[in-house]
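#random but structural
TW: two for the price of one
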Amino acid sequence: MKLVLLKDVKHLGKVGEEINVKGGYARNFLLPTKSALTPSPENLEVISKMKDELIKKEQELKEAAMSLKEKLIGYSQTHKVKVKDDSNELFGSITLQNIMDRMKEDGHPIEKKQVNLPSGAIKELGTYNVNVSLHSEVACDVIIVVEKSEEES
């Protein structure tokens, strides 16, 4: 199915490019999210008029993502948790929601869908890298440190 992109889409193309994708991908993702339009004569006219504006808007989003990436460089979280006796296994786990709550407390306005926990919920002590996708071309890693909490007997 032929489409014209309204946004930069990772691994697909830039604003204004004509692409060829499978019908399901177009119907289920690109068209509902307003990332692309069908290349009809009317749509091509609209896109050619909007192209400069769309490119400028996309560039502004990318610059905002770059500035947020600068703030996140060197950012890490430390979670103090209870562990089971004689093991590194946690009681419960550190979930994506726990990480998101801490990021919001620290003043980083990131949406849940932008954060990727590669191995799922954290269930053991250690240091983990979490990938944060700020834009289709901008991403960074955040370090999550899980430590044993100091318990008083």
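TW: number two ↓
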Amino acid sequence: MYKETLSKDLSKLAAVEHATQALSRRFSRIGWALLFLAITSNVAMIATVGMDHQLFIVAAGVIGGYMALNIGANDVANNVGPAVGSRALPMFGALIIAAVFESLGAILAGGDVVKTISKGIVDPNQISEPNIFIWAMMSALLAAALWVNLATWLSAPVSTTHAVVGGVMGAGISAAGFGVVDWGVMGAIAASWVISPLMGGVIAAAFLAFIKFNVIYRKDKIAGAKRWVPVLVALMAGVFSAYLLMKGLKNLWRPGPEIVALVGLAIGVLTYAVVRPLVHRKAAGMENRNKSVRTLFTLPLIFAAALLSFAHGANDVANAVGPLAAVVDTATTGSTHGKVGIPTWVLFVGAAGITMGLLLFGPKLIRTVGAEITKMNPMRAYCVALAAAITVIIASALGLPVSSTHIAVGAVFGVGFFREWVTGRKSHINHGSVDRDPEPVAASSSDPERTRRRKLVRRQHFMTIVAAWVITVPSAALMGAALFQMFAWAFS
């Protein structure tokens, strides 16, 4: 016999059970993060036995571990998000690949020397008192970590480098006045807020347009794929080789631009020779459909995610351990320096923290970047990854201080807005050549006005992310200044 009341009660109990399980998973992640910070404090305690200011070093170690957790939770999403959103990689596979290559990049190529005052924002020689310098670095690191944590909670991918820059600037001003800041460098960083996403977006849109008009919109898509996919894969291989030499391995080897260009060209040509027959063989039995062409981009995307993660680990570990290394060096030597060595335990704290943050909290931002801003497929994700690498190379060659986060997310926006533009012109394109992917906003192809107005980039995410980018440096600066005053008052 069917009891309606009993059925409703059981449904309510099931809903409560699901909510309880979700809440318990959330708290378990926080528990693992706290356990990591506790281990970090013990490692710092053991590694600094007998040193002066040991308590400050241990506290800075915990703050550095907290910053590393937030870098893993927020920044790594840019490297693997598009691959996950396009279903080239499952979430679990992306987390494992990113965790392994982030750690390898941080440990093998993270370097043994960093600029303690990120990007030359402040002059450490103007903060001569060691205690004041230690408080300033701790304040900067904690301010940056708190801001990145808040941005992650808001599902906004932000630049951790800019957060550190803001924290250092605010703490430095609070400690030694406005004259301590190099405002020319700050102006260049502010300009990168506009330059980075625009460059990434334009380059990604240009590649997507090339693929659509030379492969997808052709009657014989397979013939277009045979001709151009080997070229595109070879281009990606060459560009990523140059990117790895310039960014991922720069702490181990700094070749000149001619060597970088020659290595990239050689690897691109070699890749073309290997990939061309493979693509022809795989395309031989394919149906003349967009879905068939997309599968050819899956393997390059996996390699791209791995290489981007390696380069990110090699570069951004300094955001977590740079100020921490400065605290350790100042406490050990009793003086401030522009550059300091990174103790082994500090480097491992950064690498382990980034990995833990990625595994525990990374999926949220990965889904945001890969699926919630605009719909991804392997071709679009390929354009995002390639645009990110090319933009960083161009910016490095021109000496522009750009953010890899802004570039990657800007490339995602560029792909989405280009799709909007193409959809808006749908009525002017031959019906047989229109990209028939299912879109997040339903619209009838028989209604040109509705088709023209389709929004393929979620405006809520766009506004949230852009706002977070704009206020990252000033917000982190205010927090850094406030925290410095608090530390100075508490420990003076």
